[in-house]
Predict the structure of HTH gntR-type domain-containing protein.
Amino acid sequence: MHIDLDRHSGITLTEQIRTSIADRIQSGLLQEREKLPSVRNLSRLLEVSLMTVFHAYEILEQEGLIERIQGKGTFVQGKSTRSSDQHKQDRAEKPSLDWQNTVADYLPRAQYWRMMQTPLLDVAKLSMAALHTSLIPTEWISKQFFQYAQVDPTLLTEYGPVQGDSKLREAVIPYFRERNIMTSPNEIMILNGSQQGIDLVASTFVGPGDCVVLEEPVYPCTIDVFRKRGATIYTIPIDEEGMQVDRLAMLCDSRPPKLIYTNPTFQNPTGTVMSARRRAQLLELAQSYHSIILEDDATSDIYFGSEPPPSIKSMDTHGHVIYLKGISKFISPGCRIGFLIADGTFIARLVGSKGISDLGSPLITQKAILPFFSSNQLKKHLPPLREKLKERRDLVLRILNRSAPKGVHWTKPDGGLNIWITLPHALNADDLHTCALKEGLSFLPGHVCYPTQQQYHHFRISFSYLDLPLLEQSVATLCRLLHDFVQSDRHSQQIMHM
Amino acid sequence: MHIDLDRHSGITLTEQIRTSIADRIQSGLLQEREKLPSVRNLSRLLEVSLMTVFHAYEILEQEGLIERIQGKGTFVQGKSTRSSDQHKQDRAEKPSLDWQNTVADYLPRAQYWRMMQTPLLDVAKLSMAALHTSLIPTEWISKQFFQYAQVDPTLLTEYGPVQGDSKLREAVIPYFRERNIMTSPNEIMILNGSQQGIDLVASTFVGPGDCVVLEEPVYPCTIDVFRKRGATIYTIPIDEEGMQVDRLAMLCDSRPPKLIYTNPTFQNPTGTVMSARRRAQLLELAQSYHSIILEDDATSDIYFGSEPPPSIKSMDTHGHVIYLKGISKFISPGCRIGFLIADGTFIARLVGSKGISDLGSPLITQKAILPFFSSNQLKKHLPPLREKLKERRDLVLRILNRSAPKGVHWTKPDGGLNIWITLPHALNADDLHTCALKEGLSFLPGHVCYPTQQQYHHFRISFSYLDLPLLEQSVATLCRLLHDFVQSDRHSQQIMHM
């Protein structure tokens, strides 16, 4: 277990150890009933005092994550229904692999893998922030696959350019120009989806102890990436105008961030839009403190009313913004394609990193979406997509308005795919999720979106993925569950006060 | 410029600084005439003495990589024909991006990107270790793309499983079993090519100062990966029996490696096969010292005589070997697919890392190669492929035997795609490459395959990529160039001795 401690971060060492172990447990990397290092061993390994580790373990025990058994040691708390005998039996089958547990890794957290690991068969996935098949022009795309593979077999026989197909990099220029991003093919790199962009930016520019700022709540896979790099993560809460940039300014005075990650338009998970004023302020801050802004823009094309404010990249004159545009949320997640835009030496360094990570993306998937940008296909595709997603949002909001119980709140997003729901503070969305799964429903419990102090009373639902009748039925079921859940809580509070 | 120094590696700090800066210059990350930090600033930044940095700069200057100009500072030496005025002009256009140079990165080297960056139009690429189009069943594969995309449009609308398509993971089991690798779909992960596997293993298990062992010479992109992780790299030379495992044993006594990377079968670049005896010894060493073996097996299916010895993975009972099988070298590089096999907690941790790096590979490319493994297509494909590649190898060896000058040596590989050519010691393959490019020929200069002390008198040619007449003509041209090159060297030596 490798824990990067930052002695200058202003976050106590106890808290850093606690967070690191809690992350490992909550993302399933430390398994139930797995033995943790002794206080003495961990304090020696991390070169911290015994009391520091002792306190961290104490808090983890209070949080119900670990268990100290007199004379035996400290173990990850078991939650599941599997008996510890079952676990022992599993291990006994392959006793010879035990040495692997001594191999330290640099993987403190893997939330996405954990979320995807749970088999959700026959479950209506309100958790899935992706488009329903009917919203994706699959036939059109599959035709491209066929045509390109037939016409140009070298697509299958060549390693493509590391930076991505030059035709596609040219074809997207008008798309970005229309959005006020003046760029050139040399400043664009093609990715295996925007997640790879976040990972490449982190592995190129962020290392142990570097200060990284995330919005709170934030897209959970982002936390995975920066934790893996050993960064010191600070969070800035968002409100209805997006990231609270004045709070960031205060942080910058004491600890200028190396990188600020933001998802300013229809933020995942909350749906919030950062105001134009704050976008300008954020860019100013980055210029003052020589920070990189990583602007993740997956859904700005999916707006339901007026267009959202221009991207931060469109205002960037000094090469501070590294801009990510994934196509998964509005064209096809299956092609695994995203674009990264950066200037100056940043783009060169990032292409170098891409080469190291996978030599380059497949050409055939890049060719399959090329005509989307080189013809007017995208312009035909977007307006009806917006219309249909707006109908879906309206449907869900209507049901929530009509049927959700008092004390439950939600965002009314002007775009994107998600609604962020907030329960009364004392309630835990994880418990609600357990009930929901039994009824054949899933959503994204909100605590995975908090990098540091987790909040348990939020969750995210997406209105884009289910077919319409199932969406309607699922949100109605959710409302019924919410009623029961809030009710039973009121009831138990009354008992407590009696 | 971020440099990871390891104070316990037995490699002097001066040498570590030298290597790190030389790597950056040789891979083009530090540009010609770029200013380096002053001795004072770098010594402060790295917390080493002034003399340590001074000596490193001194050696770099002797090597002709940097230039110290009195009163102005230290600069990267300019080699190209572009005038420094031109460089100044380039910079003047975008003066506002200068702040980017203050942003330290974790990218000490990017050889692959550099190699791919040079435009090689109208050049016969003996440098390219890939199959000629005629050796790849492109029509068959492109038909799969069409059929799958038509039959199952959800391939385009879903994020696939992080670990890879379960059907494909099942379908490859017989392939691996026939090669004595007893594995299960749960222990297999699908990658964007095997390079991604090297990168994931490194980013999961290797961190700053961890001891990593590489063969020497080695596939250059491997060096990029482990340098990026800040590992301390030790090299073990190979001979005709592969990695010299007895020398590794001596190293293990003083510095047990966390990871040993090997490409035991038809090694890239040399074509060498590690003997069965050494494979067993290597595995024993890994068991004794709790090391991971990363076995990269790209070309064991391409043998020209008897089958090569079984993989190290096939002998692995204790989960020490993480095994990589890329399909680029024998099916299609364009699909960007590779397989990783690991046991126990290793596979779980690596799948977690894959999720963080890109959420998973595209399903459509995985489906396109599925029938290769699920039908008998692969069994039909391999024998004629071996036959055709053997003919190509024989052709090239014939020409070399007949026409290469005395003093030049080469390997006679029993499989794979490459031949490793060695010049008389005083000659520099880089200079030969400059001549070759003028004649419309490229090869891989060998020095990029050396992680530490670079050797300049080797180079690699591949017999797989060019069409047959061009291959014949190119190797003949190469022989002519070799004659001139060796001749002119003898001539200049005679002058020196007069």
In short: The first strand of chain A starts at residue 66 and ends at 69. Chain A has three domains: 13-108, 124-135+381-497, 138-378. DSSP finds 18 helices and 16 strands in chain A. Residues 80-92 of chain A have pLDDT under 50 and may be disordered.
